[in-house]
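I keep forgetting this: the sequence line spells out the residues, with the fold written below as integer tokens. I include a record here:
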Amino acid sequence: VKSTTAVNATVTVCKPPQQPVIPDRSVFLAGSIEMGKAEDWQAKLTSTLSNLDLPYHLTVLNPRRESWDPSWIQDISNPQFRGQIEWELDCQDRADVIAMYLHPDDEGSISLLELGLLAESGKMVVCCPEGFSSRGNVQIVCKRYGISLVGSMDELVQEVVKRLGELPAPQDTKTHMDGISWLPTETLGLQKTVTGRFSHRLSLLMSWFLLNNCWLAYAALRSRLDVATIAKDGTADDNKTSLSLTLK
């Protein structure tokens, strides 16, 4: 599904099992779904974003699956269910902003699991209207981890747009696997952006490299000091011998 804003900036919606191609900025829509029973707030938020004059391309990662089957067994052994959850986890990793809406009529157990999982990501904006059963818990968690917390859909949209606008100009961070839809889900799940898990591993490798170089430099310096000490001791012994012969 695609729609174009008044300034010709395109908003692309990606739903599972489609693998996303993210050319610019992205937002993941977390929160109430309730197996397709909850209000389709994702469609409302997407429509609002599509009608804004966004000066960038926005990819909306919407986990509300069109072909969801409520009879699917929610177990890791079920490939359809596992594929859905892994799609969500991968997209949460890749998204620039994660917008969460907690509907007052939704029990929200899975949404609260997501909140705990993503609280320290630095990406979250949470909308928790009055009436949500665990609103107090949400307030405390958001305060603890510095998460933006709002009370209405309009405020959620405003905060999402603000956060997206604060992002630096995008670079080509797509992997060579982006857009390859014929690969199996397990392979596509390995996609990583440069700013994601790969950069963390790269920083660890660079840290190891620097520490290794420091150790080599220290060893070389220690070796030179040892040689200098030996040479100094040898000179001192020669001076003592010369002085002894002179006295005799």
